[in-house]
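S1.2 Input.
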Amino acid sequence: MMAFVASLVARLRLGFFRAFFSLLLVAIAAAEWAVVAWIAVRLGARIPAAAHVAAPLAIYLGNRLLAPHLRSTHPALRPVMRGYAGFAFTAVFCGVFLALAGIAWTLARLGATPIGVVWAGVAPHARREAFGQVFARGVDAGLAGIIGLFVLGYTAGRRALAVTRLAIPVADLPPQLDGFRIVQLSDLHLGTHLGLAELEAHVARVNALEPDLVCITGDIVDRVETCAVAFPVLAGLRARHGVIATLGNHDFAAGADDVAAALRRYTPFTVLRDERADVAGLAVLGVDDLGLDWARGVPEHPALPALAASVPPGTPAIVLSHRPDCFPQAAALGACLMLSGHTHGGQLGLPIGRRVRNLAEFMTRFDRGLYRERGALLYVNRGLGFTGQPIRLFTSREIAVLELRGAA
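S1.3 Output.
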């Protein structure tokens, strides 16, 4: 029975990820109408029951027509499309909030009494009316709070950048590598929301860190036509032992062979595709992205065992993998460090307790930051770019500086 349930859950999860973007369009239409309808009712409008069917359907069909033009570069259309996309994205979260509020309202109408509210001596009809007013104002405040957070995310949040500095203890590290400085970049998504002027500033920022090695862990571009324009700027990165790049799922969607060829043509970088590079006494193992879909990675990468076996004895091995899911495998094969990205740290998060809970937790248990297993360390970079929308909430963009240190 347990095996059947596990199999059913796995099939449902697979189906969900495959149909995610189609379901998202439906959810966006429903959420947009929910927000508009709530505001209209609060302003005194009366909405016919039929409108709650016709309006979401019309919005859905309209969104299907608009979707191909959301990334328009036309000077007149671009700000309009970006503004509408921002509204639609914000509406999804407002719609979830309204759905939860609807459940709470239904429970209250069925007799569930809000904690801490004393109704003694109040007539039932007056009690319902008073509760309804308080509840509606609470929903208004909740929607305003969500919208305010998203405005913050689209403005100050999207500009926030952290330079994270970490000491990475490595057992039996050769003395000459003590203090070896690796700067990791990930998920640049060049050409979508990260332009050439900003890229040039990031390049200068990295060079000022005086790295011994720069590692780029995938999702460098979203479209292959960006390569010829952006890669000559990216080629300005400087490090004592050069720059090593691996590819991510967006690079594969753009055309992995074309992106790799462009990197080799326009930059002096070393591109690793299931290959090893020997750098200053380190073995750097770079693997291609083999994700099952946009969300799920592979727990065991087929190229890693052979690559790990090729590492000379006593040589510290560092794995570059766009997705972090194969970290337990890399640790078991003897890697001392693995660098990954892909998750963007969730892009949206909320500080709850001692950590920031974020959307990437639905994708992987390695959502952001530092992890340890079998003496190996994994660092999941929050990335420099954006996917979907140019928004960051409690999840700043990141350049990671990792210094190798000897450890017993």
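S1.4 Remarks. Residues 200 and 233 are 6 Å apart (CA to CA).
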